[in-house]
Amino acid sequence: MPTSPADLDAVRDSYDRVADNYVEMLKNDGMGDIRRHPWLLAALDVFADAVRGLGPVLDVGCGPGTVTAYLAERGVDVSGVDLSPRMIEHARQLHPECRFSVGSSTELELAEASYGGLMGWWSMFNLPREVLAEVVANYAKALVPGGQFIIGTHVGDGEVQRTECYGGVPVNWTTYRWQPDQLAAVIEQTGLSITADLRLPRDEFSGPGVILVAKRTG
């Protein structure tokens, strides 16, 4: 089992506080709305085609369930899990057709070779670097042969301590930024093979990002 971060409770409480504003910004401003971003949709469509039929897919850090619901529409056997109970309340209200549960990426009990796909869609940047490596290693073992791991995250150097977010709501978390090659190396150390690397420029809501996709080959 991966190490639980020392600030896990603070991060959970922070996301509970921002959940209502996050959903309002999603509805009103399009923040986090993947349907407005063709390159994000393209990455998810390729991922959906790759994992469909391989086994269940788990969207870890699903927030209000936007990506989970999108993949479900495309025939993927997907469920979502999030650290924040309030985020899961929103997910269940917005997408009652999908399955959601509360949990941390560091506390998931994943049986070996049991998932067709695992996701960290802009949901792993609060994990300290050594903890992220442990979580990805846990995911790698849980994938079936041919299974896929997809991660999207913030690009940059070092980390940033956040004290407010999503419309000025007080938070207490650290954003760990990654250089794409650095993150790819961590993933490859688990035995997964990188199959896609998509770089994204800064936009109105966020700094530059990267999407990496990796496959279990054996």
From TrEMBL:
This is Class I SAM-dependent DNA methyltransferase. The lineage of its organism: Bacteria, Bacillati, Actinomycetota, Actinomycetes, Pseudonocardiales. One of its GO terms (biological process) is methylation. Residues 57-147 form the Methyltransferase domain. Keywords: Methyltransferase, Transferase. PANTHER family: TRANS-ACONITATE 2-METHYLTRANSFERASE, TRANS-ACONITATE 2-METHYLTRANSFERASE-RELATED. It comes from the Bacteria. Pfam families: Methyltransf_25. GO terms for molecular function: methyltransferase activity. InterPro entries: Methyltransf_25, SAM-dependent_MTases_sf.
